[in-house]
Amino acid sequence: MVSASTLVVFSVAALVLVVVPGPNNLYITARGIAQGRAAAVASAVGVETGTLLHIAAAAAGLSYLIARSAAAFTAVKWAGALYLVYLGIRTLASGDGAAARAAATQPLRKVFLEGVIVNVLNPKVILFFLAFLPQFVDPAAGSPALQIVVLGLTLLMFGIAADMVYALGAGTLSGLLRRRHRALRYVSGCVYLGLGVATALAGSGARSR
Predict the structure, then answer these.
(1) Which long-range contacts (C-beta less than 8 Å, at least 24 apart) are formed by 133-141?
(2) Single pTM value for the model
(3) Distance set, CA 122 to CA 146, 159, 184, 203 (Å)
(4) In whole angstroms, what is the distance from residue 97 CA to residue 105 CA?
(5) What is the pLDDT of residues 161-206, one digit of tens each?
(6) In angstroms, rounded to a whole number, what is the distance separating the alpha carbons of residues 146 and 164?
(7) DSSP 134
(8) DSSP string of 17-58?
């Protein structure tokens, strides 16, 4: 099992990583601004469900295989980038007016699934589980897969807390700006497009070294 000292050091590092705004936090914020607090919370739960899938994949060695295969890594990267760009274009093209706002309001189940997809297709998360988490795994301490699960769940707890802060904050901001529909639409759409570009560029330097 993971030693207490290793778990403490990992927890501090993980806390720092989840507090700093990243693609998942910005996605949750954009969804909350566009649709309100309930949608932001649903997207946060979806994102962390995606983290659970990454933990399972890392424990099974799938993340390693994807990151070591140029074709598989590129496919995941571009799928994630294109999906985020699609969300951005859809948001920007939704138009103004009550009908457009109603069309832009997604059922919470769909918002949840979007959060899962955004996180699962995020190559930065795959690289995190390969470059950062393994540094805290000690083969002499027992099953590496079990250690990955313990560390991954620790990260998940911090991630849920941070995501909920972003979700509730974005939901509040949405309420304050509810009358500025055009501004909300442009902010959300541009965030999605920016995340798509960031995802497309993710991992280029790491794979070239």
Answers:
(1) 133/58, 136/2, 136/6, 136/9, 136/10, 138/2, 138/3, 138/6, 141/1, 141/2, 141/3
(2) 0.71
(3) 23, 15, 24, 10
(4) 13
(5) 999 998 988 877 776 665 555 666 677 678 778 777 876 776 554 4
(6) 27
(7) G
(8) HHHS--HHHHHHHHHHHHH-HHHHHHHHHHHHHHHHHHHHHH
